[in-house]
Amino acid sequence: MGAYVLRRLWQMIPTLAGVMLLIFVLFNWVGGDPSLVLAGKITNKEQIENIKKQLGVDQPAYVQLGYFAFEVATGFTCTWKSFTDKPEPPKTDPKADPTTDAKSDAVKATAQTKSGCQAVRSWATNEEVPKILTTRIVPTLTIMIPVLILETILGVILAIGVAYVRGSLTDRMIMMVCTVAMSVSFLVYIIVAQYIFGFQLGWFPVQGWSDSFWKNITYYAPLPIMLAVFVGLAPALRLYRSFFLDEINNDYVRTARAKGVSEKTVMMKHVLRNAMIPILTNIGIALPGIFVGSFLLETFFSIPGLGREILVAVNRSDFPVIKAATVYLAMVTMIINLLVDVLYKAVDPRVTFK
Amino acid sequence: MNLNIPTLNCAKRAIAALALVWASIFLATVAQAGDLKTLKIAFRNAETGFDPQRIEDRYSVGIIENFFDTLVTYDWLARPAKLVPLAAEKVPEGEEGGTRFTFRIKPGILFADDPAFKGKKRELVARDMEYAIKRFRDPANRSPYAWLFIDRIVGFDEYVEAAKKANKYDYEKSIPGVQVLDKYTISFKLKQADYNFLYFFAMPIVVPVAREVIEAYASDTMAHPVGTGPYILKQWTRRSKIVLERNTNYRGHQLDTQYANPNDPFDQAAIKALAGKTLPLIDRIEISPIEEEQPRFLAFMNLEHDYIEETPPNFVSQLLSLGKLSPAMVKRNVHVQRTEEPEITWDAFNMEDKIVGGYKPENVAFRRALVLAHDRASEINIIRKGQAIATKSAIPPGAVGYDPDFYAVDEEYDLSRAKALLDLYGYVDKDGDGWRDMPDGSPIVLTFKHRAEMEGRQIAELWVKSMAAIGIRMQTTAVQFADLLRDRKVGKFQMSNLSWTADYPDGQNFLQLLYGPNIDESNDARFKLPEYDRLYSQALKLPDGPARNKIYREMNRLIVAYAPWRLGVNRIFSHFINPWVLGYKRHPILYTAFKYLDIDTAAQQAAQQQ
Fold it and tell me: What is the pLDDT of residues B307-332, one digit of tens each?
């Protein structure tokens, strides 16, 4: 298995290079000129040239691509001069005035600037991009992890139930409700639920977020989580039901029943275990999504997550943030795909790594 | 059955525990609010940061109004806005024919405490203002407001050029036109007379900053605003929550107004609530940027926020019908203030375009016909949901130089006149395809370029419909915001919709949008009329008064006559205020009112507990 994992990790390098090339081409050809957005209400050519120079977008495409690759590899952005010059040591001795973290951060940052390299920063807000990703991912996961867990557990339980009573009125009714539920836009659910449960009934806050995980998970997150679960449950239920039906109709199930194995054992041991492989594949496909969150949920409920951050970045043509988020998502997707493939082995011993 | 009982009890216990947690959080929130006078509001958009010389968006600027003191500011209740001193001892008179302005800073004003000051109190001095002015032109700052100080102060452009050649922006070097006369006095010498220069020092971005703070936090000055204003930044979760608390070093101020309107209920309520008190009165302000309309509106309705400003037009009708508050709002004793902001929208014609541009009589007639055919009433009633009025001139209400009597019939919708004008100048259907052609027989196909979002699309579609009514073929092109900015700057468009919000409350801030030398900068219509440019230069040299107003009127007349713009609308905003917020009055230029507000905490808590 070690050799297999190693080979898959090697394969990620050309894949990531391809993703980066695609992102670079798309942003340079399709994306607008960020210098104009940043220049302000009244600008002149000189100012715009200065901004282009600072952003490095005045450089030839291959140089910009090189910078981009360096940024992805290190998380730092550097000027060409910084590669040839020796970095200057900071003039201030941090030990001389250890008053605050902010001070030492400032000294560190000044040293970074003097060496010509610094963390990749947002063009719009000057915030460090790695910091944006690491801080925004927490609210996103606070919402999305419970959503994935609840959606999977409820989806599997309900799907196995309706698959067992397939063809009955209950089965038909549930499938009809699922079809109707899937036909309505997520945005409509959010608007209606926010109005009814947040405003009319007052069961939940309309919007908000705090610094306390406990307060978030118990006070602000329940409504967005319930909405996401409700909306995600219908397609999951239909899909998982079909996986269970495929298994229920197999010969080994009929054989087990003929041998007098109890229905509980047939369903929970044989059918469930075999249906878990396609279910796991489906979860694997959905899993990268939890790391970018739902921009609709985050925007409507004022959750400071990654989805909302990406939306704001797109509106501001803040390319470093958009590029970083895209590369990050590509990496997460590849890693999760690898993990899911490894998990197949745990679920199904017949799977072998080649 | 017995097996289920413990399970049920367990579930009940879990629910009870959850409810307990929920209740404790709620009570803790209420208790926390009870300790301090806390104001909670929302902004329509996310902020970018709080470095005064590096920001432009009105939300960030609105926040820093509370961190930094400008040298001069506006009388809080005066309409139109009037300058009064703030950090300066008095509003300076223009000397040397309006080319010199000298400010003397009040001694004893302290910056908020910060580690950058190494435990010492730091007094505001003239050098801080000099340093801030230099920062505007430092290329490293990419200041969006650098234009304020380009080609204006004696020696500043040369200073920047020298820095460029030396590849070092030297803050130690002095600028001939920026003289620090003593510890508290700074004098500016301008290249030419400009009485509006004073307004720059009321802009929340033109504020003194402490050099040691900027240098200590060089890597992230956006997150470290340290000023002399009434509040400090207590907590900042970017694009999610901004918390302000009182600056303990702040000297306090009073509502000192000379221009309150005795007939304005908001003025009288503000005076009653605040007169004689040392301000600010609110301890803590929590601001949540909420981009979506519904949650922002519902948060106000749910009493999560104390007031809602710039209420989304889609929701105004739920609270306000024919100018009257709804019964539910009357029961809640909510107040409403409706304001016309000092801003305008317009549809620009590219004056260098072969079809819509030009200054010959037939070119002017063509544009004027398009203006007459544009159904602006539909824009107001349908697209803007009635929350706007037609713009009468390039200077909006609330700006100095606005003339309420200026009226141009040529901006009124009149299809017959539009058709007659086109017929008169030979813009008729020559090839029988049902669409009008140019006098030389070539086809007319106009293009309206707009931002790829709903409002831009609706405005463009209205133009297409309006033009079809007079037999002019028009198509629309939707582009991303950045591309639209680029295309406008280089004149790569035929028609487009634009807007402008006042940086300072003088008509000149709007009239400069058509000043010839500003082509490639702010004059997107690329209008170049010698007479207009001459009047503009002449007006700059005059202080506010009848002589200058006469020039402004003449410039407005030229705009209507040559029609480089189709004048658009002045948006009307509705602001709803809960009854426990005292002293509220929306200012036309300053974005936040925190330092002039008070809260009746007993009424606030009683309402929230109901």
Answer: 999 999 889 988 988 788 999 999 99
Q: What is the ipTM of this complex?
A: 0.79
A207·B485 Cβ contact <8 A: no
Give the pair of three-digit tokens for residue B337: 């203030």
3-state secondary structure of A27: helix
A106 or A243: whose pLDDT is higher?
A: A243
Q: Phi/psi at B405 (nearest 5 deg)?
A: -90, -5
| Listed residue (B474, B418, B413) closest to B449, CA to CA | B474
- Judge contact between B237 and A304, C-beta under 8 A: yes
Residue B401 has pLDDT above 60, yes or no: yes
pTM score of the predicted model:
0.84
Candidates A41, A46, A297: best to mutate against B (most CBs of B within 10 A) is A41
Q: Which residues of A touch B219 (CB under 8 A)?
A: 105-106, 109-110, 112-113, 118
Rounded to 10 degrees, the C-alpha dihedral B174/B177/B183/B185 comes to -170
Interface of B with A in 269-298 (CB under 8 A): 288-292, 294-295, 298
How many Cα atoms are found within 13 Å in the side-chain-facing hemisphere of B364? 12
Tell me the chain B residues in contact with residue A301 when contact means C-beta distances shorter than 8 Å: 295
Highest mean predicted confidence (pLDDT) among A78-82, A311-315, B308-312? B308-312
Q: CB distance from A138 to chain B under 8 Å?
A: no
In this structure, are residues B251 and B108 in contact, taking their beta carbons and an 8 Å threshold?
A: yes
A153-159 contacts, C-beta under 8 A, 24 or more apart: A154/A229, A154/A233, A155/A232, A155/A233, A155/A236, A155/A237, A155/A240, A156/A240, A156/A272, A156/A279, A158/A233, A158/A237, A159/A236, A159/A237, A159/A239, A159/A240, A159/A241, A159/A243, A159/A244
State whether residue B569 is helix, strand or coil: strand
Q: Which of A273-287, B207-221, B560-574, B579-593 has the lowest mean pLDDT?
A: A273-287
CA dihedral B313, B483, B510, B82 (to 10 degrees): 60
Q: Where are the alpha helices (DSSP H) in B76-182?
A: 126-137, 156-166
The rounded distance, in Å, linking the Cα atoms of A76 and A130 is 9
Backbone phi and psi for residue A27, each to the nearest 5 degrees, phi listed first = -70, -35
| Residues contacting B592, CB < 8 A, separation 6+ | B62, B63, B65, B66
How many A-B residue pairs are in contact by the CB < 8 A criterion?
A: 170
Distance in angstroms (rounded) separating the CA atoms of residues B85 and B101: 14
Contact criterion met (CB below 8 Å) for B402 and B395: yes
- End-to-end Cα, chain B, rounded Å: 43
Distance CA B48, CA B221 (A): 12
Burial of A262 (C-beta count, 10 Å sphere; 0-12/13-18/19+): exposed
By CB atoms closer than 10 A (0-12, 13-18, 19+), residue A69 is middle
Q: Which A residues, 213 through 272, put their C-beta within 8 Å of a C-beta on chain B? A: 214-215, 218-219
> What are the Cα distances from residue A127, in Å, to A272, B83, B331?
48, 36, 45
Position with higher pLDDT, A350 vs A111: A350
Beta bridge partners of B558: none
Query: Given an 8 Å threshold on Cβ–Cβ distance, is B489 in contact with A40?
Result: no
Residue B542 to residue B193: CA distance in whole angstroms: 8
Distances (CA, A) of B45 to A316, B48, B292, B509, B600: 12, 10, 9, 24, 28
Spatial neighbors of B558 by CB under 8 A, at least 6 apart, are B529, B531, B532, B535
Sign of CA dihedral B308, B309, B313, B317: positive
Lookup: tokens for B383: 């697209």
B21/A contact by beta carbon, under 8 A: yes
What is the pLDDT confidence band of residue B12, given thresholds at 50, 70 and 90?
low
A102's tokens: 């902010």
CA-CA distance, B382 to B419, in Å (whole number)? 25
